[in-house]
Amino acid sequence: MKSYDVAIIGSGPGGYVAAIRCAQLGMKTALIEKYSTLGGTCLNVGCIPSKALLSSSHHYEEATKHFEEHGIEIPGEIKVNLEKMIARKQAVVDQTTAGIDFLMKKNKIDVYEGLGSFIDATHIKIDGKDASEIEAKKIIIATGSKPSNLPFITIDKERIITSTEALKLKEVPKHLIIIGGGVIGLELGQVYYRLGAEVTVVEYMDRILPTMDAGLSKELNKVFKKAKCNMMMSHKVKSVQRKGEEVIITAENKKGETVKFKGDYCLVSVGRRPYTDGLNAEAAGVKINDRGQVEVNEHLQTSAPNIYAIGDVVRGAMLAHKAEEEGVFVAETLAGQKPHIDYNLIPGVVYTWPEVAAVGKTEEELKADNVEYKVGQFPFRALGRARASGDIDGFVKILADKITDEVLGVHMIGARCADLIAEAVTAMEFRASAEDISRYSHAHPTFAEAVKEAALAATEDRALHV
Ligand code: FAD
Ligand code: NAD
């Protein structure tokens, strides 16, 4: 039986990053993955394929709606070849997962293909292509998550689908009904409305992206409405039925009235659930809580002292970069180091266009905590760079402590915000004040100038360009 310092179950961004860091720190490392490709949800059916389709559909929208205003004329009709678009997406995925194979070899990590299950706290059975049993002193559970569902919905994977199927449809839906106006619903909703589908978003709460700052929800809602999407807030879905090629969704609105939506596809995007099926966690003494998460302490250690857990399978935001931070955290903990993660400073991004990005506290949270704060907001339309590109929608909002001026939250919607948020994270990691941000130089003309201007607005209401 092969013996390891550490074995990691699951090769998503949590697991494979943990494996690399463990190997870098001199540990003999094994990585177990039940699928034939590495990279988990993120690389195979999550972050990467969804961004590939968002990019392709963005190009199409630019070509059909905006090229002309830039003086670019394309003779003849511009058409979508969905098969080719999906094939390109798959090529991007294949290239990216192959990159992980390379990294595993480079770092001399032993990869096992097969379902990993605990025999006891130091032994794992692998069922599948690389069937075997291995021993490890330390084990990291990184088994991720799967789409969750409502109890009365049957996902048939043809017309009543999750994000996994929505990433490989064979036709553009005529009318896509999306249950859940969260990140997945909006990103994939935008892909398909750009490609020509009618889109209806049915959301239980009174706004889309209900956990983000309300200002961002409102602005993105406007974008979807402008694209003629039906945004049905405060609707509780009661049933989903399929009749041939038709799907019928019944919901109850705020007034208690029954409302029906008819379409040809229904995307169920109501969140994801931690995944521990087949792991046999109890054999190792690993406790699973009533939310299905592996229970961990502040060191990400489970109820079995030599076993740790990271990523979507434990508490906290279900984000790839959060899983990665936790992978590094556990590897360094195992090496005797004292790493740290500030969960308040894990940014959240929605990759629609305009992009939505945030870090730190929302206005709603500051109000609930009775924190006195000031707001500096700056619209992108006031920037020369935004006008030059034609991307004028959105704003940057900085929330700072009223007395100390420390930045407490940054919320933005607009072009390139997914990248701009890194500046806010850096500033907050160093506990910058709004004035600090307003005093360092931002290249002109850039979208980043909106961050400086919002900081100026928060400092003394002295933005320069509004
Ligand atoms: P996962 O990536 O889920 O990986 C877990 C792996 O463990 C899987 O490969 C699974 O097969 C394997 N596994 C499970 N059980 C076993 C077992 N018993 N034995 C062997 N292997 C096992 N996050 C972002 O930050 N940015 C985004 O843009 C983004 N976009 C997304 C888009 C979509 C459509 C979806 C669905 C998710 C998206 N996410 C995004 C979320 C992101 O994918 C997850 O947060 C991330 O993948 C979690 O990483 P993980 O390592 O915890 O688990
Ligand atoms: P989500 O939690 O973002 O959104 C789910 C939405 O469904 C919420 O708005 C919720 O109010 C709504 N909802 C729940 N029950 C409902 C019901 N019965 N009827 C109508 N609406 C209902 O979940 P998601 O969009 O499925 O995404 C899952 C996870 O994947 C998220 O945690 C997210 O972090 C991650 N993800 C991240 C990205 C990114 O970082 N860009 C992209 C995609 C997914």
Automatic annotation (TrEMBL):
Lineage top rank: taxon: Bacteria
Catalytic activity, EC: 1.8.1.4
Keywords: Disulfide bond, FAD, Flavoprotein, NAD, Oxidoreductase, Redox-active center
Entry GO MF terms: dihydrolipoyl dehydrogenase (NADH) activity
Oxidoreductase listed as a keyword: yes
Signal sequence bounds: none
Every Pyridine nucleotide-disulphide oxidoreductase dimerisation domain range: 346-455
Broad class of enzyme this protein falls into: oxidoreductase
Catalytic activity: N(6)-[(R)-dihydrolipoyl]-L-lysyl-[protein] + NAD(+) = N(6)-[(R)-lipoyl]-L-lysyl-[protein] + NADH + H(+)
Protein family according to the UniProt entry: Belongs to the class-I pyridine nucleotide-disulfide oxidoreductase family.
Further information: The active site is a redox-active disulfide bond.
Name the UniProt record assigns to this protein: Dihydrolipoyl dehydrogenase
